[in-house]
C-alpha cells in the first residue's frame, strides 16, 4: 500500500478536524500526517511553507495541493460511494474555487489554535514529527 503524507496547517481548527476525519476513515493506515511546523517538513521539504492549502506528498515525492490533494486522499478512505464519485469527477478548477474561498477564511470561520499542533486522538504511529 502506498504511503501518503498529509501536510496541514496545525493552527487551523478546520485542518485539524480534517486530519481526524481522514484518520478515522483510513482502514489501511497508510496516510501519515504532519504539520508545516514539524521537524519532518523542515528537514525533508524545507521549501514547503504554510499557506492557504493542504499538501499531499505521494510515495514518489509528487506534491499535490488544494482539491487535487483532497481528491487523492479520498482514494484511501472509506466514504459514501456516491459522494466519493461526485468529488472524483468534479473538475479541479471548480472545486478549487470553493477550496480557496474556504481556505482564505478558515481562521475566521472555524477558529485558530494558539499553538501549532497535531490532533492527539490520531494514531501516533501515523504522525510524522
Secondary structure topology:
Layout: E1 4-8, H1 13-24, E2 31-35, H2 39-44, E3 55-57, E4 63-65, H3 66-74, H4 81-89, H5 92-104, H6 106-110
Parallel strand pairs: 1-2
Antiparallel strand pairs: 1-3, 3-4
Polypeptide structure, described:
It is built from 6 helices and 4 strands; from the N terminus they run βαβαββαααα. The chain is α+β, with helices and mostly antiparallel strands and 129 residues long. The chain has a single domain, classed as Glutaredoxin (3-Layer(aba) Sandwich), CATH 3.40.30. A 4-stranded mixed β-sheet has the order 2-1-3-4, covered by helices on one side. The model has no long low-confidence stretch (mean pLDDT 94).
Radius of gyration: 14 Å
Tell me, briefly, the overall form.
globular
Average pLDDT score = 94
Highest-level CATH class: Alpha Beta
Topology-level CATH name: Glutaredoxin
CATH architecture: 3-Layer(aba) Sandwich
User: Termini, distance in Å?
Assistant: 22 Å
| Helix/strand class | alpha+beta
Biggest sheet details: 4 strands, mixed
- Low-confidence stretches at least 5 residues in length (pLDDT < 50)? none
Number of helices, where a helix is a run of at least 4 consecutive DSSP H or I residues = 6
Beta strand count: 4
Proportion in helices:
40-55%
Question: Could you spell the SSE succession in H and E letters?
Answer: EHEHEEHHHH
**Adjacency order of strands in the biggest sheet:** 2-1-3-4
Domain module count: 1
Beta strand %: 5-15%
Amino acid at each position: 500500500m502506498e504511503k501518503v503524507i498529509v501536510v496541514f496547517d496545525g493552527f487551523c481548527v478546520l485542518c485539524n478536524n480534517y486530519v481526524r476525519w481522514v484518520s478515522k476513515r483510513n482502514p489501511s493506515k497508510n496516510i501519515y500526517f504532519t504539520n508545516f511546523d514539524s521537524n519532518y517538513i523542515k528537514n525533508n521539504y524545507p521549501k514547503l511553507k504554510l499557506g492557504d492549502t493542504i499538501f499531499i506528498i505521494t510515495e514518489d515525492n509528487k506534491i499535490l495541493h488544494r482539491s487535487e490533494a483532497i481528491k487523492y486522499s479520498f482514494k484511501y478512505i472509506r466514504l459514501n460511494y456516491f459522494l466519493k464519485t461526485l468529488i472524483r469527477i468534479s473538475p479541479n478548477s471548480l472545486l478549487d474555487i470553493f477550496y480557496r474561498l474556504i481556505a482564505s477564511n478558515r481562521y475566521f470561520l472555524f477558529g485558530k489554535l494558539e499553538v501549532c499542533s497535531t490532533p492527539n486522538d490520531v494514531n501516533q504511529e501515523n504522525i510524522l514529527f
